Amino acid sequence: MTEPTAAITPPANLPEKIRHYIGGEFVDSLDGDEFDVINPVTNEPYIRAASGKKADIDRAVAAAKTAFEDGPWPTMLPRERARVLNRIADIVESREDELAEMESFDSGLPITQAKGQARRAAENFRFFADLIVAQVDDAYKVPGRQANYVNRKPKGVAGLITPWNTPFMLESWKLAPAIATGNTVVLKPAEFTPLSASLWPGIFEEAGLPTGVFNMVNGFGEEGFAGDSLVKHPDVPLISFTGESSTGQTIFANAAPWLKGLSMELGGKSPAVVFADADLDAAINATIFGVFSLNGERCTAGSRILVEESIYDEFVERYAAQAKRVKVGLPSDPDTEVAALVHPEHYEKVMSYVEIGKGEARLVAGGGRPEGFETGNFVEPTVFADVMPDARIFQEEIFGPVVAITPFSTDEEALALANDTKYGLAAYIWTSDLKRAHNFSQAVESGMVWLNSNNVRDLRTPFGGVKASGLGHEGGYRSIDFYTDQQAVHINLGEVHNPVFGKQ
Ligand SMILES: NC(=O)c1ccc[n+]([C@@H]2O[C@H](COP(=O)([O-])OP(=O)(O)OC[C@H]3O[C@@H](n4cnc5c(N)ncnc54)[C@H](O)[C@@H]3O)[C@@H](O)[C@H]2O)c1
Ligand SMILES: O=C/C=C/C=C(/O)C(=O)O
Questions:
Q1: Which residues line ligand 2 (CB under 6 A)?
Q2: Furthest CA-CA distance within the chain
Q3: 275: β partners
Q4: Strands 402-408 and 470-471
Q5: Which tens digits make up the pLDDT trace of 352-362?
Q6: Using an 8 Å Cβ cutoff, are 29 and 6 in contact?
Q7: Number of the ligand 1 atom closest to the C-alpha atom of 465
Q8: What's the rounded Cα separation, in Å, for the pair 159 and 214?
Q9: Which strands form 362-365's sheet, in the order they lie side by side?
Q10: CA–CA separation, 34 vs 26, rounded Å?
Q11: Is 221 close to ligand 1, i.e. is its CB under 6 Å away?
């Protein structure tokens, strides 16, 4: 049984309120507006947060612009900026427990997984510290005639808009490359989960990041609110956004008048394809982890499992049995594998899909609220089998611990099913046939493929989706490209070859 009192004990260092952070100071909204932040276990408000509007974004962008124009951050040596980034990583690491406790309390993530995400956040800063020091740029020469080189410049004020799933880690994913390359930033964290972001100012100050380089405005995304105002601010030349595909479309349209640089990491409905020749134990473990880790609130979740007919019945039976053993528990319990979804609104959305699924397919595990969890956003790990491709639970992103399993009989059918969605973020392929694995990878419509592998990231590789899953790529040098302008400088080394115009 659960102990509700343990669940609602707030972290020891809870701030009095969530404020914006502008030009080195914590501030309230200019109009004083605030909103409630909810704990996902009790669904009770536990803290107030400032709700930013256009006027607050104007202030934050002005502070970031001043810090960019007055320096020293954009013109510091890469080595000096890298030192600050490495200090940020050290501090994040040293505060892992505190950070994870806050994240878990605010978002409902299982504490053990929240710790892993805090370590990933630190690693993002370390990685980009290394990358800017090792950074090389193109130079080309035509001997005796011309030399050309690339002058890379930070763009200015970067607008960063982030979602509520693994919030601190996904914020670090954007913050690290944006500041590493010499930009200043305005971060707009997700309104469901602003708590861990309230630690950034202290971390950055302690690491020696100059005042005004990092600014943060909390609040909502809609028109007139913080997110929308950031997208429409004329002094913000680029927006890096992670969130829903429909929000991405709105941002795309709103940024169009300024032709802003856009990077968008959007939704997914990623297939995990299991062929009969796969290592079945490994495939089952990985596909369980792939959709139930991080509460299933993960853009790259393998939420459609396609299984070859000859092993289908065995797979479904074993998968359902293992899903039933996934430990649902309080976010604060170190043994918990699936905890509470972020917010009652999201819980209702996920539960509505569970009900839709019951009318569309065969329920083989879960399908309700776990026993012993009468309040809060708890959902049993839920498995549907025999899901047809026209089912809504096959096509639509659920973003919770719910998976659809579908049989296929040929490679061609597997590929057609894998691609039969508007999304294209990740694909996972399980087979011992090398040729099949590589040919399938070529043909599958996804930004990333994992072959016989869990979702393990190498920070040097591009991260992003195709179709409705995104626009552009970040990760490694792609992030450096996104957050900088590349100016080509051409130098004449010989005679001037231009034809002469207008000569008498
Ligand atoms: N592809 C990826 O890398 C990736 C990663 C994480 C999450 N996601 C996706 O994110 C979604 C879940 O996150 P969410 O519910 O927070 O997404 P969301 O789109 O509702 O919100 C994301 C952020 O955008 C802001 N926002 C909302 N409307 C806006 C507008 N008109 N202008 C500017 N900002 C606006 C929100 O306040 C929030 O900070 C899922 O669809 C998931 O797949 C994708
Ligand atoms: O949830 C969105 C982004 C996730 C990135 C990952 O590497 C992951 O899937 O954990």
A1: 165-166, 298-300, 455, 457
A2: 97
A3: none
A4: unpaired
A5: 999 999 999 99
A6: no
A7: 1
A8: 11
A9: 362-365, 382-385, 402-408, 304-308, 271-274, 426-430, 448-451
A10: 14
A11: yes
